[in-house]
C-alpha cells in the first residue's frame, strides 16, 4: 500500500461555516458529546469532498475510518443542514428590488443522474421516461436558476423530472413571483424556451412553427441579438455552480435528492464569496 497526503481546495472559512451548522444541528437534536465517529469539522470535510471532488462515498468512508452506512448518513445530514439555509425566492426579489438592480436572469439546467425507472403518458399520448430529457438526451432533473446580471447565482428551485420543460418548471416554481417583481420595476431576462412566460419576462422571439424558410423582421433580429448579449453573463450561474461543486455534473444519489443538493451547493457558493 502507498500512502499520500491530499489537500481540499476549499477556503477554511467555508469548512468552518458548515461545521458550525452541523454542530448546531447536533445541539438541537440532543446528540451526546463524543458519541459520533466524526466531529463536526471532520464531517464537514467529508461533505465538502463529496461536493467539490465528486468523491465516491465508500472512499470517503474508508478515508474517515467509518462505515459506508455512516458516511451516507453524515453526507445526507450535511446536505440537509445546508439546504435549510438556501435563500427564499421572495426574499431574493425584495432584496434586489431595494438595490435597484436593472434585471435578473432566469435559466434552467439539467442536473444529470443515473438512469431512473418511471414512466408517464405525455401530452401526445405516448409513454415516456419521466426522468429523461429529450432536449439534453440524458436522464436527470430540471432545476431553474435565477442570477444577477453578472452571473452570480441568487436562487435555485426545487427539482422537477428531466422530462418537464423549462417553461412548465418556471410556472410551477417562480413565474408568479417574477411577474410581481416585474410590475415593481425588476424585469427578468430569459432564453427562447420561455416564450409565453408572461408580462415582464423578456425573451428572444422564435420563428413560427413551419416557417423556417422565412426571415424574422430586422427589428426582431436586432431585439433578439441585444437581449442575448445582455443576458449572456447572467447565464454563467449554472456553469459556476457545476464547475465549483463538481458533484452537480452527475448525481449518483436518489434523483429526489437533487433539489436539496443544488440548494446546498448554492449556500456553499455564497459562503465561498
Throw out a few tags for this protein.
single chain, 273 residues, alpha+beta, seven-stranded mixed beta sheet, two-stranded antiparallel ribbon, 44% helix
Description:
By secondary structure, the chain is of the alpha+beta class. It contains ten helices and nine strands. The chain has helices at residues 12-28, 40-53, 57-64, 68-83, 89-98, 166-173, 175-183, 218-231, 237-244, 258-272, and strands at residues 104-112, 119-121, 127-129, 132-133, 138-147, 153-156, 160-161, 188-189, 201-202. The strands form two sheets. Strands 1, 4, 5, 6, 7, 8 and 9 form a seven-stranded mixed sheet that branches. Strands 2-3 form a two-stranded antiparallel sheet. A hairpin with a 5-residue loop joins strand 2 (119-121) and strand 3. The longest helix has 17 residues, at 12-28. It is globular and about 70 Å long.
Amino acid at each position: 500500500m502507498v500512502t499520500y497526503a491530499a489537500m481540499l481546495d476549499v477556503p477554511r472559512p467555508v469548512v468552518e461555516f458548515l461545521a458550525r451548522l452541523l454542530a448546531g444541528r447536533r445541539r438541537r437534536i440532543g446528540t451526546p458529546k463524543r458519541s459520533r465517529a466524526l466531529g463536526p469539522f471532520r464531517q464537514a470535510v467529508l461533505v465538502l469532498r463529496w461536493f467539490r471532488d465528486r468523491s465516491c462515498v465508500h472512499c470517503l468512508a474508508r478515508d474517515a475510518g467509518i462505515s459506508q452506512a455512516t458516511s451516507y448518513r453524515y453526507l445526507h445530514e450535511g446536505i440537509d443542514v445546508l439546504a435549510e439555509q438556501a435563500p427564499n425566492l421572495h426574499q431574493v426579489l425584495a432584496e434586489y428590488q431595494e438595490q435597484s438592480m436593472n434585471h435578473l436572469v432566469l435559466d434552467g439546467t439539467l442536473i444529470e443522474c443515473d438512469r431512473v425507472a418511471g414512466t408517464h403518458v405525455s401530452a401526445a399520448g405516448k409513454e415516456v421516461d419521466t426522468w429523461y430529457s429529450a432536449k439534453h438526451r440524458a436522464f436527470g432533473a430540471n432545476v431553474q436558476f435565477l442570477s444577477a446580471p453578472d452571473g452570480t447565482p441568487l436562487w435555485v428551485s426545487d427539482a422537477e423530472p428531466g422530462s418537464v420543460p423549462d417553461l412548465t418548471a418556471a410556472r410551477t416554481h417562480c413565474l408568479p413571483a417574477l411577474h410581481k417583481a416585474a410590475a415593481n420595476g425588476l424585469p427578468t431576462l430569459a432564453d427562447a424556451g420561455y416564450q409565453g412566460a408572461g408580462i415582464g419576462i423578456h425573451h428572444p422571439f422564435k420563428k413560427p412553427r413551419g416557417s423556417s424558410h422565412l426571415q424574422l423582421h430586422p427589428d426582431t433580429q436586432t431585439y433578439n441579438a441585444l437581449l442575448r448579449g445582455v443576458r449572456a453573463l447572467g447565464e454563467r450561474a449554472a456553469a459556476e455552480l457545476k464547475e465549483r461543486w463538481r458533484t452537480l455534473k452527475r448525481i449518483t444519489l436518489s434523483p429526489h435528492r437533487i433539489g436539496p443538493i443544488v440548494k446546498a451547493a448554492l449556500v456553499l457558493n455564497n459562503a465561498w464569496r
